[in-house]
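Thread: quick sanity check before group meeting

JM: Hey all, I'm pulling together slides for Thursday and realized we never actually wrote out the predicted structure for the chain we discussed last week. Dropping the sequence here so it's in one place. If anyone has concerns about the input, flag it before I start.
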Amino acid sequence: MTAPDPLPNLPPHDDDARWLAAFLAAELPASAFDHAGHLRAAGLLLSQHPLAEARPLYLASLRRLATRLGVPAKVNATVTEALLLLMAAAGAGTPGEPWERCLQREPALRSDAWGLLTRHYSPDRLRSDAARQHFVAPDRLPLPPCPVPPPPRP
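JM (edit): ok, ran it. Output follows.
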């Protein structure tokens, strides 16, 4: 049996709770919110919330941050939510595992997110006004199913 690949190199996580609070409050600087920042926000939200709660929270927080940074048109609801769903399908939010483990299972999340998305969506659909405003279903392959979390213990 081979050892798992090491977790990918991401920006240092000095304090995930403080960083996530700044994201939720739309207080992050633009420099802290590149693609790795998107992944970090999604992973941390999936670690702390069920998928059904993380989806609207992530999109609303991202829209607030983009508006504060003066780039509200950069937010694409379908890209945002589809990547969150792909992270969840790859195991982000699995109890007892670091969220970054999903990046080992699906390295394209970090290295080629657009290529990963275009397996499921045509570029025209992803770039459409409808996709920018709200989540639209894939027109190529369906998104993979997300694991159902175990019920809480009594």
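AS: nice. The first helix runs from residue 16 to 24. The radius of gyration is 15 Å.
JM: adding both to the slides.
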